[in-house]
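Bumping my old thread because nobody answered last time. Still need a sequence for this structure:
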């Protein structure tokens, strides 16, 4: 397997020095011979080396440097004299492109080119300049480089000043984007593109299809009513909290927290002015039912809020146990089910309100938010768009895209079999070499002290784990979701890549 990463270890830097010597002393006579047969670049401490491996052997490299003056500046003067101003906003120089002789094939050069495109684009450079050897002019041109000044150097080592801009790399980058393998917990990559629809949301046909979608959602959730909105899970939670504000303007409630999204739910509740008290049991820790009951015995709380599937740490919180408490103390239980709905079978019968979305475990287009209700809400002081009784009264008060409704209806036909699919995918993750934690089959959490380096290697090779959020970065955590359509094939390739990445750490 050919794959790429950022050089980080002493062994990799020694291999770079050896390949430098082999290429730029023995093959291209730029430097003097030495008995160690190692050539350390004069800008070594400023270079970022992107290297290519064949399994565990380093076979190719290229160096990025953005400290001025560039090497090419010393040959032709500042490159700004030759290039447009917008191209020069954030420049870097590519140097030391080299491949071992017995690996000079299309696959290695493609991997190097791919790494160059991904790295320079992701870092935000507006362009890369390079002194390209004349013997490889065709290769550089195919990659999108163009010559911008006269050739320099000696007859034995002649170079072309060339530049690669973001604009010139657009076509190649689009092809790369299509090849990416993603493991995000949403949005979901669509197997079939959405077809724009001109069916009016006021038509009888649309009303029939909307009723079918709502019926399917309620059947899957074992809920009595559902109100769809165009928006995100955060919007769904705001609608639920706004309704609670109307129903309990002065009464107190509890919010249970053991992760990022429980804390977000608490913050939203505070913004609504709800009289809320927080029980925070710590990141990923289970709720203590006895502790919660002790709170309920002291104060006349009227409702409990919690996140059912806490995505941030792959924790499934105890709906059944909390439901029994709510029934015992005659209080309302409300849940954020955004990451659990569609991933496991469960009943919302005991929930006063619950929220979900279309673009998570259901596995379809992002854009519809759902508020499930045990009883029809009858009054609300919330703004009109979040006013749940208004949706009951008007049925379709605002525009709902027909293509979204159609997509949700289609994906509901995959249940209950999809539950088994997600379960098998999670078993594949747990049976791999990765040391993950997960309590429900939507997302697995993986912690490693060198996670930033691992994620960079994955991204250079087109594998995108969920790891960019601040709450994940600060804990050295990445997550792998099971909900993307090509999981089986993609995870097999990811597992192979990670086998080699982990060996080089």
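Sorry it took so long. Here it is:
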């Amino acid at each position: 397997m050919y794959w790429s990463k950022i050089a980080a270890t002493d062994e990799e830097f020694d291999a770079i020095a050896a390949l430098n010597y082999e290429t730029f002393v023995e093959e291209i006579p730029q430097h003097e011979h030495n008995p160690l047969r190692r050539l350390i670049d004069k800008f070594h401490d400023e270079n970022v080396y992107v290297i290519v491996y064949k399994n565990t052997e380093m076979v190719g490299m290229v160096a990025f440097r953005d400290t001025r003056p560039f090497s090419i500046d010393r040959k032709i003067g500042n490159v700004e004299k030759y290039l447009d101003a917008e191209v020069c906003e954030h420049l870097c120089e590519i140097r030391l492109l080299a491949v071992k002789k017995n690996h000079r094939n299309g696959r290695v050069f493609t991997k190097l080119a791919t790494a160059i495109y991904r790295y320079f684009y992701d870092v935000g450079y507006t362009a890369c300049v390079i002194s390209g050897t004349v013997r490889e002019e065709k290769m550089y041109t195919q990659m999108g480089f163009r010559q911008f000044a006269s050739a320099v150097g000696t007859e034995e080592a002649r170079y072309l000043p060339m530049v690669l801009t973001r604009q010139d790399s657009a076509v190649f980058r689009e092809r790369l984007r299509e090849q990416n393998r993603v493991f995000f917990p949403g949005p979901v990559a669509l197997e079939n593109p959405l077809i724009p629809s001109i069916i009016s949301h006021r038509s009888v046909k649309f009303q029939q299809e909307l009723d079918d979608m709502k019926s399917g959602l309620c059947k899957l959730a074992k809920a009595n009513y559902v109100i769809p909105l165009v928006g995100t899970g955060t919007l769904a939670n705001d609608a639920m909290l706004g309704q609670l504000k109307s129903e309990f303007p002065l009464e107190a409630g509890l919010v249970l927290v053991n992760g990022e999204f429980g804390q977000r739910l608490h913050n939203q509740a505070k913004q609504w002015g709800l009289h809320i008290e927080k029980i925070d049991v710590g990141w990923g820790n289970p709720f203590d039912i006895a502790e919660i009951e002790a709170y309920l015995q002291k104060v006349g709380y009227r409702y409990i809020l919690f996140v059912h599937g806490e995505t941030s740490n792959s924790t499934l919180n105890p709906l059944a146990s909390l439901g029994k408490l709510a029934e015992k103390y005659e209080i309302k239980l409300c849940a954020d089910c955004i990451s659990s709905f569609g991933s496991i079978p469960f009943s919302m019968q005991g929930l006063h309100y619950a929220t979900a979305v279309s673009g998570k475990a259901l596995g379809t287009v992002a854009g519809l938010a759902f508020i499930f209700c045990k009883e029809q809400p009858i009054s609300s002081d919330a703004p009109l768009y979040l006013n749940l009784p208004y949706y009951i009264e008007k049925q379709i008060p605002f525009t709902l895209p027909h293509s979204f409704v159609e997509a949700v209806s289609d994906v509901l036909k995959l249940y209950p079999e999809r539950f088994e699919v997600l379960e098998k995918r999670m078993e594949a993750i747990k049976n791999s070499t990765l040391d993950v934690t997960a309590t429900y089959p939507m997302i697995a959490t993986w912690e490693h002290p060198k996670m930033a380096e691992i994620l960079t290697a994955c991204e250079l090779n087109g594998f995108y784990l969920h790891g960019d959020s601040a709450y994940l970065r600060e804990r050295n955590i990445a997550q792998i979701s099971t909900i993307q359509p090509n999981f089986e094939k993609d995870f097999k390739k990811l597992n192979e890549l990670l086998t080699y990445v982990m060996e080089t750490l």
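The mean pLDDT is 94. Let me know if any region looks off to you.
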